[in-house]
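Translate sequence into structure tokens.
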Amino acid sequence: MRHLETINIIIGREFSTRVKKKSFLWITLLTPVFFAACFIIPVLIMNTSKGEKGRVINVVDRSGIVAPALKNSEEMTFDMQPADSDIESLKGGLSDKEGAYALVLISPLDSAGDISVVSYSREPLSLDVRNAVSDAVKKQVEDYKLRKYDIVNLDKILSDISSDVKFNSITITKKGEKEDSVEVYMVVSYILSFMIYMFIVLFGGMVMRSVIEEKTSRVVEVIVSSVKSVDLMIGKIVGVALVALTQFLIWIVFTAVLIIGFQAIVGVDFFKTPVARPGMEQVVVSSGTDLGSNIQQQLSNPDSEMAGIVKSIKAINFPYLIGCFLLYFILGYMLYASMYAAVGSAVDNETDTQQLTIPITAPLIIGLFVMLQAFQYPDASVAVWCSIIPWTSPMVMLARLPFGNVPAWQLTLSLVLLFLTFIGTAWISGKIYRVGILSYGKKATWKDMFKWMKYKN
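Result follows.
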């Protein structure tokens, strides 16, 4: 009981000291803004990516076949110029604010029936203009070459064989069938697994620096006179863990508030997708902004890209993922933080930690690389084994879980091994910490740390 009371006091001290720092407040407030921006910005880009309206593009078509395929739109107008136009004069007109946005020069057909295109503009040519011109040129050249074969009813044949393939991925599970979106799973996997990696490195390093600060300031000598060094190490690790969990929970709530606020401003609910009626071509939204109306129209169309993304996001079991994230974060952090604490106790300054932290950071980096492959091949042997091995499982398992194909026995085995490895590592780190925290003047090596492990209590 006395040990628990001592550890609780140390935990409270570590927690209160860190949450009162300005850096904690800034990171806690700004990180949810970043998370919310990751959700909001792609939505804004998808709905505001049509570019500047009314751009005029001068076109000199010397092939004689491309001009009919260049269609005007709300964003761009193609102004056809004579084939013998003075190119230098047209290029000079691009400097005027009221002049053309770009000049497109289409070459004559060569002996093989091919065409080259050159564009001139005062700023990098926008992608929508480039795509519109290149698509028109490609279509007209292909049609021109096909007509040279003098095929009867060519237009009808091309119309008949044209098709738009819609690919739906269905996974058969014990609970039934579900429609999948691999792209959405990959994004969720990347976010969760990279957050695990980032948090372990960030907060594990925080424990190490805290140990070094107390050791160099000789404060630890006063503390260990009344507290056991192992209790001090455990209290410090748990205290920083509580700081991390507090930040994480605040981030979830604050991010949700920002996203809900954005939904209220644009007048649309992303997670309550309306069902489109047969034959519906357009949905008129009487409330909300123009942006909200545009988003609502896309959500109302089951075939739209945005509706598909929202549907895939809704199909993900987020409570299950968040629960697994917390388990792997807590156990993974405790495992690595105990090793960081041992290293911090063995040195007198942060510079001396470079060589000693290589065995700690190496498994993390390996897990990071395997994690990047697990997005594409979640059932590959390397991904499966690295999701079970304790030193890489926090990152790799979080990369596999969103795909929903992790057997229960693999998840259970992974968590049990991670917990047992943490207990063993914490016991070894405690022996190193007990000796190292009061050792000064000599730069410790791995050989010294192995000796400390063998010392009796």
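Note: The longest helix spans residues 229-266.
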